[in-house]
Write a structure and sequence with these properties.
mainly alpha, 7 helices, 72% helix, 0% strand, globular
Amino acid sequence: LITHADHAEVVKWACSALSNLACNDYNKVAIEKAGGIPPVVAALITHADYAEVVTPACWALRNLAVNDDNKVAIEKAGGIPPVVAALITHADHFEVVTQAC
């Protein structure tokens, strides 16, 4: 996510991988400790117009936010405004709205 942050396709798959990994409680903590939340937030900002990236990025944050400490980390990383923006920008895109809610 960091090295190839400008490449939407790479970011899409990286966010998808993190969203799958974040289904596990241990991994939720490990991803946050590894600094994984800020790059996901950055992906939402950088690729805000691309539903193909926004969907897995919101999915990753959604899974990570099940952990209370991660909720705080997401807010500190500036993650709330880009999720709200995704809901507005992609209001007609079912997948984005589903993952952002």
